Amino acid sequence: MRRIGISTGGGDAPGLNAVIRAAVKTAINDHGYEVMGIRNGLDGLFEPGGVFSLTLKDVRGILPLGGTILGSANRGNPFVRKAIIDGEEVVEDITDSYIERIQLLGLEALILIGGDGTLAIAQTLAKRGIKVVGVPKTIDNDVGGTDTTFGFDTAVNIATEAIDRLHTTAESHHRVMILELMGRDAGFIALNAGLAGGADVILIPEIPFNFEVICRKIQQRVARGSKFSIISTAEGAHPEGGQKVYKRAADAAYVARLGGIGQVVGKFVESMCGAETRVTVLGHLQRGGTPTAFDRWLATCYGSDAVRLIAHGRFGRMVALKGRRFTSVKLEDALKTPKRVDLQGDTIQTAKALGICMGNDLD
Ligand code: F6P
């Protein structure tokens, strides 16, 4: 019996369990494969009980569950290890030990489910001869080669509900309410939720903002009788000529963590625009809980497609959605250019047409 492995890496996203379920069912029912779950990203390869047989029973009832039954790891590149040699900190490349474990376990092919970090790991393994297929996951929707990653739709829905709820206090107290949303260096969540929730100002990393322009918008609204405003800001948004705001810097093993731009904008709005302001950071609520129907559908099709890629011997590829068609792209093509908000695209055009302030003078 052919044996394949499956693992989930990076930050959790709604729909991970739906991918696992679809992959296991397709692999067992359609192809007669044995599926081995690898726990905690690829860390499970080295942990006692970290690699285990996934049966149909294991995936029963997990379709609507958030998180991942396999666990995940979100600390950057697992192929590097810090060590102290002769009193000096050095970074060792330990890719070989991963490859040895994969071979020793008889894993003929791997399905790696994750964002750009995990897909880069997949590409490294593919280059070293491991048969890998990637599945694009992330609430940020920033993976190239596909129109949509699973998890994004759920995050946008949660963020939209948050904007709806913030409207209540904004209107009642005549305040500016700022919502800081995830997305790393891409503004998709803040933009789509901002549009869906009727935000007055949307700040995204792709459009550096100008404080005065934001102030003008808020004051214009007041002059026209709307004494409140809602600002939807991406965590990666930043002022023209200014820096992104980080909670923690990157180091050899960890990726940098964004966070705090909401407070920066809030302080400015309160002191310079004369508006009472509150800031909400939605944080990991955007990643938690049950996936939307769209994400369940997308994740299910992705999981099943990933197994079909293996069955057809099409390795080093990532499943993708283009328009209404499921397809696949080479991992290297998916990773070449990270996806960002298209400034000439329909969503930006619409936001401007509706009078939403995008934080710059072009509004
Ligand atoms: O990539 C998904 C994401 O949620 C980003 O939007 C966010 O910047 C980051 O992960 C947070 O990572 P962590 O859960 O490790 O704090």
Structure description:
- The chain has 363 residues and is of the alpha/beta class.
- 35% of the residues lie in helices and 21% in strands.
- The chain contains 10 helices and 15 strands.
- A 7-stranded mixed β-sheet has the order 3-2-1-6-7-14-15, with helices on both faces.
- Helix 1 runs parallel beside helix 8 (293-311) and helix 4 (152-173) packs across helix 5 (188-197).
- The N and C termini lie far apart (61 Å).
- The relative contact order is 0.17.
- The mean pLDDT is 95.
- It binds 6-O-phosphono-beta-D-fructofuranose (F6P).
- The site of 6-O-phosphono-beta-D-fructofuranose (F6P) has 13 residues, from strand 12.
List key phrases describing it.
single chain, 363 residues, alpha/beta, seven-stranded mixed beta sheet, elongated, binds 6-O-phosphono-beta-D-fructofuranose
Strand content: 15-25%
Low-confidence regions: none
Note the gap between the termini: 61 Å
Q: What portion of residues is helical?
A: 25-40%
Over the alpha carbons, how many angstroms does the gyration radius reach? 22 Å
- Structural class determined from secondary elements: alpha/beta
Q: Which strand order spans the largest sheet, edge to edge or round the barrel? A: 3-2-1-6-7-14-15
Ligands, deduplicated = 6-O-phosphono-beta-D-fructofuranose
Q: Count all strands and give the number.
A: 15
Secondary-structure element order, as H and E? EHEEEEHEHEHEHEHEEEHEHEEHH
- Count of DSSP-assigned helices: 10
Mean pLDDT value: 95
* Main sheet overview: 7 strands, mixed
User: How would the global form be characterised?
Assistant: elongated
